[in-house]
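Progress report, Aim 2. The chain analyzed during this reporting quarter is listed below.
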Amino acid sequence: MQKDTDTRGRIHRVLSSSVIAGVVPCLLLLAVDRAAYAQSDAEPPDVVSGSCLAAGCHSDLSRGKVVHEVVAEESCDVCHENSANEHRFEMMDPIGDVCLACHDDPADLGGYVHGPVAEGRCTACHDPHRSEHASLLREESPALCWQCHGRPQDRGDGRRAVLNIKKVLDEAEVVHEAVDYGCDSCHGAHASDSERLFNDTYPARAYAEGYEGAYELCFQCHEESEVLGEDASSTGFRDLETNLHRVHVAREKSRRCTFCHSPHGGGPHLTRKTVPFGKWDLPIGFTVTETGGTCTTACHEVRGYQKEIPEEALPDSPERSGK
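Predicted structure tokens for the chain:
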């Protein structure tokens, strides 16, 4: 049955706007609540305790797998200011300031701060009372992140808009496996020393000055030897015995991984169709072949590679000639 919230609200407004409100104790308001709930299937208020959580009105705020400590302790006045005459409970301060009264400032974690954190909008991601998810998150990642990153966002400073990452994934032929682990497998949720909130080192620009220690973010999952090793046998991106990842990356003017690969989702091997370069989108033109692939970009003319020498190109041998 639908709660008679309108009736309850009218009763409270009448009481709070009259002289009676100054002398009627909270227990009477709770008794009125009990009458309003009599025709509903909600739990009746607890007239004896008078607790906000046990009073029927807000009892659901303590139900969840994870309950905020102050809620579990029924310490509502830690965050809310009690204006009993109006039965209104405003925040003590702006929500961001209220959170920092107990929690360390997450902005101290790095020089680049996630937008909602910088604006003090903690409740954009966290439920202040209870949740079914760890850390009082409103949803699990990446679903939580789609609230903002499921649409393009104008930075307002002339730079490219922040991508609609959900659209990128929906249209991708291959999705980066890291996405299944959650966005925080690569990004800090609050702040980082990286402009893109990476949780380990990765070049901030298309070209890196040197490569040693620059790609620890990727090497959390990927084998460093596949990218930087001289032994090409461990990678499919090789031209016979030459590791082509190393050719691109292990150099003074190092080409970062996302020059050719999409970090979220893309074509075969997460390859991009285009690469953003300043205000331009440069085509890559990568094509998979039976023995390797070809690539043509603004960086170089058409080039191809072969992982193996085709059998028909091998010189005759005693085994093949039957001698």
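The two ends are 90 Å apart (CA to CA). The chain has eleven helices and 17 strands. These observations will guide the mutagenesis work planned for the next reporting period.
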